[in-house]
Amino acid sequence: MSEPAIDARDLRKSFEDGRINALTGMDLRVEPGEFVAIVGPSGCGKSTLLHLLAALDMPDEGEIRVGGHDLRTRKDMNHYRAQHVGMIFQLHNLLPTLTALENVQVPMFEESLSPHARRQRALDILDAVGLEGRGQNRPPELSGGERQRVAIARALANAPPILLADEPTGSLDSDAGRVVLDLLERLRRERNLTIVLVTHDPTVAGRADRVVRMLDGRLAPDGHRPERLGEPARAPA
Amino acid sequence: MRDSGAIVPLDTLQEMSARQDVVTAVHVTVAPAEDPDEVAAAIESDFPQLATIRDVDEYSKVDQGFEILDAANLAISLLAVGIGAIGVMNTMIMSVFERTREIGILRAVGWRGSRILRMIAYESLLLCLIAAGFGIGLGVLASRAVVLVPSISAFLTPAYPPEIFVRAIVLGLVVGLLGAAYPAARAVRLSPMEALRYE
């Protein structure tokens, strides 16, 4: 059996000197190429879990293994964030003063690429997310859906095997949201990506291979649902 | 020459000091039969705008006055430089603090802290260099404007030795860099998530 893409065990994380317990012993295992949706009520720790998986924050306790490697033993978290995971935020978090093309190039600066190679790779990724010809626009000049697609392009800049998405359609209308989800599914098929997506929206969760329910910082009692919502289960691509 | 002084024709001195037709001191030799105090009183009576100095002790009082003026001038200059430096530092601190979230984004996509610090340092140096250029230009214009006032131009002539500009630029760069370093180092030490939450 191959190593899981993500294997998180007994994750605990609190804020404000322990007054807020965001995670209280969360476990999560994600296989390579799997598309997992994490759902649950507001404040149940979904986003905190994603931030820990992206190494944007560190757990108080627990273990996260990505591709078989324990995150705690990694010396260079920046390299992990740049190369192993791509993070998509609900509000895109693009740099407003840079063009779409420049935003996509930002994660590539830690690689020893020539400016020409960086630019070409960013153009290719923008093409892949359907934004050819929009590279010179700055985020304020783009629609919400386009901004989110730039954010997806940026997340894919260094071709990471894992994509983490925090409510990627939360601030979009249903049409733009559908475009973004179609894009994620297509990219997943083409690049064999592992996707972990946090959402409130059952329709969005219904696009995943597996839905994981959280409650009060851990798996809900009926936390694992191997089937798509309303559809039979299917194997990961 | 004597006591660091020099004797030059009056016209030449007036031309050199840009004080045409201005005389700042007149030496009067009193005849042996005359009383210097009476002569001084007569001069001050006939020319109330003049002050007379009658002996060496009073000269030393004048010299001391100049020393006090020099000291006051230095103190005011240091104070002005200090206030300016605090202003520059405060501006840089605020501008980098406002970029904490941007720094969080860069950390989230994998930028190393050292790269972020380098970027902030380069940007700060460039900003301070441009600001120093504007500041120097404004300073030169202001000094020229001040001497348009006759009562000031009678005593002050602006001078622009290169070292003044070098000192101003170096001071601006050092202060700006120090001002940027603290908030940048602080933002880099935060976890990316803490920096992203910063409002």
Blueprint of the fold:
The complex is a heterodimer of chains A (about 240) and B (about 200).
Chain A: E1 6-15, E2 20-30, E3 35-39, H1 46-53, E4 61-66, E5 69-70, H2 77-83, E6 85-88, H3 100-105, H4 115-128, H5 144-155, E7 162-166, H6 174-191, E8 194-198, H7 202-205, E9 210-215, E10 218-225
Parallel strand pairs in A: 3-8, 3-9, 6-7, 7-8
Antiparallel strand pairs in A: 1-2, 1-4, 4-5, 9-10
Chain B: H1 10-16, H2 36-46, H3 56-97, H4 100-108, H5 113-146, H6 150-153, H7 162-189, H8 192-197
Structure description:
The complex is a heterodimer of chains A (237) and B (199). With 237 residues, chain A is an alpha/beta fold. Chain A has 7 helices and 10 strands. In chain A, strands 6-7-8-3-9-10 form a 6-stranded mixed sheet. In chain A, helix 5 (144-155) packs parallel to helix 6 (174-191). The longest helix of chain A is centred in the C-terminal third of the chain and has 18 residues, at 174-191. The two termini of chain A are 16 Å apart. The model of chain A is unreliable at 226-237 (pLDDT under 50). With 199 residues, chain B is mainly alpha-helical. Chain B folds into 2 domains: 10-56, no CATH class; 64-197, no CATH class. Helices cover 71% and strands 0% of the residues of chain B. Chain B contains 8 helices and no strands. Chain B has helices spanning 10-16, 36-46, 56-97, 100-108, 113-146, 150-153, 162-189, 192-197. In chain B, helix 4 packs across helix 7 and helix 5 runs antiparallel to helix 7. The radius of gyration of chain B is 28 Å and the shape is rod-shaped. The N and C termini of chain B lie far apart (69 Å). Classes of the chains: A alpha/beta (237), B mainly alpha (199). The A-B interface holds A 51, 54, 56-58, 78-83, 87, 93-95, 106-107, 109-110, 154, 157-158 and B 102, 105-113, 115, 191-194, 196.
User: pLDDT average of chain A, as an integer?
Assistant: 89
Largest interface, and how many residues on either side?
A-B, 22 and 16 residues
Shape of chain B: rod-shaped
| Uncertain segments of chain B | none
Assess the beta-strand content of chain A as a share of residues. Answer: 25-35%
Radius of gyration of chain A: 17 Å
**Strand content bin of chain B:** under 5%
Following the backbone from N to C, one meets helices and strands of chain B in this order, namely: HHHHHHHH
Taking pLDDT < 50 over at least 5 consecutive residues as the criterion, the unreliable ranges of chain A are 226-237
Number of helices of chain A: 7
* Total individual domains of chain B: 2
Q: Let me know the largest β-sheet of chain B.
A: none
> Mind summarizing the main beta sheet of chain A?
6 strands, mixed
How far do the termini of chain A sit from each other? 16 Å
